Structure prediction request, 670 residues.
Amino acid sequence: MGFLNEQITSFSIPEVQDVMWQPVEKDHLNVLRLQWLIVSAIFLMLIVFLLFFINELQYPLWIILLTAGWIIISWLYFILQEKSFRCLAYCIREHDILYRRGWIIQKIIACPFNRIQHCTVDNGPIDRKYNLSSLTLYTAGADGADITIPGLNKLMAQRLREFIMNKIKPDEQPRN
Amino acid sequence: MSNPVTDWSVPQRQSGSALLIIVFKTIIEVLKGVWPLLIAIFFTGKGKSSDKIELLLIAFSFLVLLRSLIEFFFFHFQIINMELIIRKGLVSKKTITLPVERIITVHIDQTWLHKIFNVAQVSFDSSGTEKTEVVIKAIPLQKAESLRQFITDSKPENSIVQENTPINNGFQPLISLSGRDLLKLCISANHIEALFVLFAFILSVVDNISQATGKEASGLLAWIFERIDTRTLSGILFLFVSVLLFSIVISSARILLRYSNFSILRSDKGFRVYNGLINSKEKLVPFRKIQHLSWKANWLQKKMDINLLQFHVAGSGQPTGKMEVKIPVTRNEFIYALLKEYHEPLPINELKAIKIHKAYINRRILLIGLPVSFLSFIIAWFNIHWYALLFFLFAFYIAFSAWQFQKNFCLWAGNDAMQIKKGILGTEEIIMKWHKIQSVQLNQSIYQRQKKVATLKMFTAGGSIIIPFIQEREAFSIYNYILYKTESENQAWM
Prediction:
């Protein structure tokens, strides 16, 4: 048998650029804001603790520097989070799942169903308050190839997990 | 050769010599942990506190030896109903059950200690990417081979393999290294890396001794520098040549220890890689477990036609790197012989090469070269003033390396595989079948979106491959094609 190696012709292949992205639940923004509030409060408490207990820091210059640093970092964190939220979206296709995230560095991650090993649905205490869950898809890929989609409605996440588990049933897994 | 047939359904214990091996390993482990303390006792002489330390050491060693005895006497393995069952432990009992059909490879390793007693360590890889945790520390070599044969024969897909493969239990020799090849490898080894490893080791030893004895242990270095006048050219040359010779000796010794007795055998199912002078290692690489292949050469190795080929097998992306299989290739035809089982090299002259965008160079200079140089300049300015400007040479180095990388990088996308060639002074080539990919990621920073370029990251079970700063259109084409290939063709990735 001769060796065949034809060049790629991409015109008949479905394109990821054309998909309709499904944004995550709007309540997820509240979860992110609450997380931001908690993290910022912890940092503020840390700064107050430092200023209170370390005598060398009890000068106006240090107080201004640390407070200004906290305000700038917290503000940047807030802005980035708000912008990033607008990019959070996913798309379920017949054979794969796509996930888009990030504003400064936008990432589009695709995972074919026939490569998923298993998937889990998780929710933390803040997620539970808003009836939200995260769906994590595990593949055999190395270096962080797994995908976590946050901000899904709890019922939707369960349904998605069932849908994916049905797609990856062992009898559909090909063998050599 | 007449082996007595072993009934694997009966619980088997490790060889008696395993006890000695476990005890020896325990002693080594204890010594590794407490050697600075021992040096401290040796240097500080016997005092009240050192007596206590000695007692503690004896008690600790006794406990660890007791643990070894338990590890030996409470370890059994057997194969029942096509399942390998290992029971171990006294207080916390553990039973490991591994279905024989899930075992992909059986490794047989021999250290020098194993060789003395003619025993071997047997370990098993199962499907998926979990690390090897099923290990039998020492059983007679013949029994180890018989166990491997039993497992191979028990797997339904392998039951018809054993004919027309006359040499070495179905394996045929493919590559071995001659003395000349070893010499070439010694000359072209990365001596700078060996030098850094050596320096790091000396520094850690000096540091450990100083901490343990409470005294300055840098006397040896001071003694050396007192005798070498580093202000004269001859002194500097002497120091340079001595360090160079020393690192060549060290890296050559590493090469000889690692690659003596090196050979690769091939069967219908995979490769068997055998190497090691004192500690013999044998690794099995089933063809289906190979995710992608890469071969690279530094500048000197390129001139000498030497390459280091790596099988990126499922699981080798784990941080431990235990599953990594690297092979020195001293002739180009060997590369083709090894690639043949995976995928032949692409006809690169007939395919369009995808190149990295020039924006990559600017980005490397702006994000790495200039910030690092500028910060180093500011920090060093207070001590060495205008000499601190030398740190800007780093920015030039980054610019040069980015320019070389951008110039040399080529990607060829074939129908069922892709090939990459890259490198700065040396070269690295990668070949990967599309259907081995687990997931794919397309990254675009704000700058990349403006320049209409993107970075592609492809994940396989053997590691990931990054293609930085290619045209957005090409990146999306490859992205879509990967999904098309992995989803439309019913090919198993392992």
Notes: Chain A has two domains: 27-84, 89-170. The interface with chain B takes residues 3-8, 10, 13-17, 95-96, 102, 104-115, 117, 139-143, 145, 147, 173-176 of chain A (CB under 8 Å). Strands of chain A lie at 22-23, 89-92, 96-101, 105-112, 116-122, 132-139, 147-153.
